[in-house]
Amino acid sequence: MSNGIKSGQFLTFKIEEELFALEIFSVREILEVPEITIVPGMSDLIRGIVNIRGLVIPVIDIKKKFIDKDTEITKDSVIIVIEVKIDGDISLMGIMADAAESVISLTISDIEQPPKLGMAVNKNYLKGIGKTSKGFALLLDTETLFSEEEIIISV
Questions:
Q1: Of all residues in the chain, what percent are helix, strand and coil, respectively (each to 5)?
Q2: Sheet strands (E) in the chain
Q3: What is the distance between the alpha carbons of residues 71 and 54, in angstroms, rounded to a whole number?
Q4: Domain count, the chain
Q5: Can you give the CATH number for the domain in which 100 is found?
Q6: Does residue 81 sit within a domain?
Q7: pLDDT tens column, 25-73
Q8: What does pTM read for this prediction?
Q9: Cβ pair 24, 30 in contact under 8 A
């Protein structure tokens, strides 16, 4: 498996019925959805900003990016706060998800390259596909998930 992904722990979460995963080292925390402040002029992908212990964190509606549908906030909805690299600096960003699932361990043999065809999610956003006890998890690449324009607009 290439793309620099190694065995390790991953946080799994749901968007619709799809299982996604992030490498655990990029996850700062998981939050119940607090009040989100809408900021005029932000990208359609940006749901707004939240105040987390005095830090202003932009919140990306990843469902909108993948399937052009707003995330409906329910009792299971979460914001996953991740660290992303912007111009060499680490910044915090929130990703909305329908539900957090669990932390899983994957070995190199559990991780496959995404197929070249038939993916609903752009394969450039993926580091691979992990085989889990619940099926497959799409392993997201936080470095390619958002274009520079999306990040700059949101920070």
A1: 15, 50, 35
A2: 8-15, 18-23, 27-32, 46-52, 55-60, 78-86, 89-97, 99-106, 111-112, 126-132, 135-140
A3: 25
A4: 1
A5: 2.40.50.180
A6: yes
A7: 999 999 999 999 998 888 888 899 999 999 999 999 988 888 888 899 9
A8: 0.86
A9: no
